[in-house]
Design brief:
The structure holds two protein chains of two kinds.
Chain A lengths: L24 E7 L9 E5 L2 E7 L5 E5 L13 E3 L2 E3 L6 E2 L5 E3 L17 E4 L2 E6 L27 E7 L4 H5 L4 H6 L4 E10 L2 E9 L15 E11 L3 E10 L3 E14 L2 E10 L9 H26 L15 H9 L10 H4 L2 E4 L3 H24 L5
Antiparallel strand pairs in A: 1-10, 2-3, 3-4, 5-6, 6-7, 7-8, 9-10, 11-17, 12-13, 12-18, 13-14, 14-15, 15-16, 16-17
Chain B lengths: L6 H5 L3 E4 L6 E8 L2 E5 L2 H6 L21 H13 L10
Antiparallel strand pairs in B: 1-2, 2-3
Classes of the chains: A alpha+beta, B alpha+beta.
The complex binds FE2/S2 (inorganic) cluster (FES) and fe (ii) ion (FE2).
Chain lengths: 387, 91
Amino acid sequence: MTAVQDTDEIRRIEAEAAPTRFARGWHCLGLIRDFADGKPHSILAFGQKLVVFRGEDGSINVLDAYCRHMGGDLSQGTVKGNEVACPFHDWRWGGDGKCKQIPYSRRVPLRARTAAWPTLQQDGMLFVWNDPEGNPPPADVTIPRIEGATSDEWTEWRWYSTVVNTNCREVIDNNVDMAHFFYVHGSFPTYFKNILEGHTATQVMKGLSREDVRPPAKEGQPKLLGNTSVATYHGPSFMIDDLTYHYENMDLQSVLINCHYPIDANSFVLQYGVIVKRSEHLPGDAAEQLAIGMGDYIRMGFEQDVQIWRNKTRIDNPLLCEEDGPVYQLRRWYEQFYVDVADVQPEMVERFEYELDTTRPIESWRKEVEANLARRAAAAADQPQPA
Amino acid sequence: MTVRADNRFLDTPMRAVECRRCSARVEVRKSSWHQTSVQWDAAATAACHERPHAQPLPGPNGKFFESCSALQASIQEAALGGAVPVPDDGY
Ligand code: FES
Ligand SMILES: [Fe+2]
């Protein structure tokens, strides 16, 4: 072998197995309202089974689901007071992980303590803190507040949840993948920049509405011109997308959540939610209708991603062109959540900016949109006219 | 899970650029006039004059700092002066 690369050499796809360790950070398990029915809920996450239950005092707790007594599944038990009772022998476990009582015994034995997960309830969502090292969440690792989530000027969360059978790095990669927004999602990005820093990864994207994929606005309906989106991952799994749609006569503000938690190395639960800001342009329940419509649209978007993920292969050495985003740098950033805190390297958290040159993509995509429109017009002209 | 090197950065490596305003040293790479990569380190981040005065944007992600205009101007100069090469293929 010579040092000079033979340009005819076949490039090999390389991929290590997906890590069996799970990311350190806050993970959203879903909406609080879905856990607040006084029953224990079973959650498969981080390679384990968890039980989520709300006690009578209103606090939501997350424990390892398997009872330390004889291994019963607490998520099949019942909530009694502020404790979850095991269906096997009725041992009562508190939200702090301690066994509080054993009704048929005089005393609770020593070491009657199970794993309790730190939780955060914020803006209608329930989060758990995962840390393979077992440390509590540092004060500066937070999820920012979403003002609209608790405001009457915004709609309630429209929330969706689905299981995806692949490693969750695929969903992270999307954050820097501009071209797939055109080819997979029917968007038309015109500006794209990523900023990776600390435990956040931001994507700023501006785009145009695509006439070749969206039906043209009906008579009297405002025409959609484009959108501006600032989407930030706060930690390894929770992205907030501050998304504004620009119409001829108004701006429509929305917040979109894209989050997930790993079930195991090769599957994860993908969740997304949306709220829309009410405005004078949205009378009656138009804002709710819009949130529903947007939710369905986002679901379609994720189904498009899932279709790709289901068939693609894991790749550690993607071959990138200059119009691709910073996939490697994003993965370097993502790596910080998979190593011990002591092993987090400066380059994983130091600020990295990447602004894409969209000149060539825009040229090429304009042509493609025009060709699609021309084809559609020709097909319409070929249709026999109704008699 | 070792992260590999970006094939693009192996072919054209980054160059050091110093901010004319605060003297922060960052690493820069340009693949065209409109594409820019900027790698900061902790010292550069601490040195930036503009950042502490940046107004947070509205919205839940508003705390992020989009860019330093003084540094952008310095990068532009470095590109024009040839210190940061820009491939000349019409973009
Ligand atoms: S790096 Fe110089 S002012 Fe920001
Ligand atoms: Fe996608």
